[in-house]
Amino acid sequence: MDGAASGGDGTRERPLRSLIEALARPGPKRVHLASGRYEGPFRLTEGTRLLGEGPSTILAADPGTTVVEAPGDTALESLSVEGGGWGLEARGPIKVHTVTFRNQTRGAIRLGAGPLEGRGLRFEAGASSQAPTGVGVLVEAGTAEAAAPSLTLRDSAFVGPYDRAVRARGGATVRLEGVDFQGPRTALSQEGGVAEVERARVSGGTGTAFSTVEGALTLVDVRVQGHEYGVTANQARLLVRGFSSEHAKRAGMGLTATNGLLEDVTVKDAGNYGALQLTASDLEVRRFRLEGSREYGVVALQGRVRLRDGVIKGVSTADGITGDGLHLRQVEADVDTVTVEGAKGTCVLATQRARATLRNARLSGCGLAALAVDTKATLESRNVDVRDTPGSILVAIEEGQLQVEDLTAKDASGELVSTDCEGQTRVQLRHVDASTTRGLRSPCVQLDARSPQP
Prior knowledge:
- The protein has about 450 residues and is an all-beta fold.
- The protein is built from 1 helix and 37 strands.
- The termini are far apart.
- It has a 37-stranded parallel beta sheet that branches.
- The protein has a domain at about 295-454: Pectate Lyase C-like.
- The relative contact order is 0.05.
- It has one helix at about 20-25; strands at about 30, 35-40, 40-45, 50, 55-60, 70, 75-85, 85-90, 95-100, 105-115, 115-120, 120-125, 135-140, 150-160, 165-170, 175-180, 185-190, 195-205, 210-215, 215-225, 230-235, 235-245, 250-255, 260-270, 275-290, 295-315, 325-330, 330-345, 345-350, 355-365, 370-375, 380-385, 390-395, 400-410, 415-420, 425-435, 445.
- The chain is about 0% helix and about 60% strand.
């Protein structure tokens, strides 16, 4: 089809001049579009395939209309969709390959049912997409009778200030693979359903990069630069295998009432909500590295958490006075094989009735304390090595209970034990090798094995 032609029968030799005329022909059809601008709106019938010659083949419409409606088995390839309220409203199955969507007022794609498979797509938000409703792709079930919508998007990019690059609602299924997000406030907003994201890069946004509420979200090899949070989850299931966040304004991850497994997580220079902020959740975190956080490395409140094989470095508030490596509050925590270095406050703190166990830990440069309990919390530790700590090695106050076995503490300038011995406050020591004995004579300190060496 060629808009510059004088008219014909639709063959390559005598192309039709009008796309609307071509689409009106009955039955399945394969329409080849020459370079040029085609003014819509357009409605594709079942079995229609539109093939352009690249970005110079442009389908366009006024802002109040949808450029392309595709209610059935259709395909778009090698063209651009410009303007319109929606660029494409579809009910799958539909394939969209090597297509650019640009300057829609409401969103680029709206998928209401069935599968959409996209590859090599580019989404460009113009000035009109800066409104809160601006979305790249909306995946949302239209009616209960329709097939649930599912989006598969590979090797594609979102550029510009979309409010949400991808929004999934109402039990939708989303898979994003090799997708780059530059500028959207949120890369993925998920409300229910299932989403899988692999090899994604996110930067330039101001909101949460990945947000899920009551959904199942899997992240594999995902990197986030900036944003308010790297990930937030509420009442969700979360599986992470390779995730990094740098310069999050609040936290690398903020997870609430969420179950899951996090592996190979790196967070650098997070804000004052902590590198990992875990609330009322049941989570296991394996192989994590948290550097340069303000306020907290890991803060866990309520629920249960298991931490394995992690490193936390350089935790400090903005004023440089405090900052906790592990801050465990009202939570059941099981921590094994961790290193905490350079926490301006406490390297490991259990507070407000927390129940925590700590094994195989290496703590150094702890500003206020290496291990601390307060307000009826309990901390049991075994095989802990403390080095170069200006603060107290052990602190127990306000009816906190501390049980320590196999502790080595060298080059410490503070007390071995600092305690107020109020109420049920207790410190039990077994197999301690320390460079100081200060605090051992406190009445609530019990030494079960050999004394510290001076």
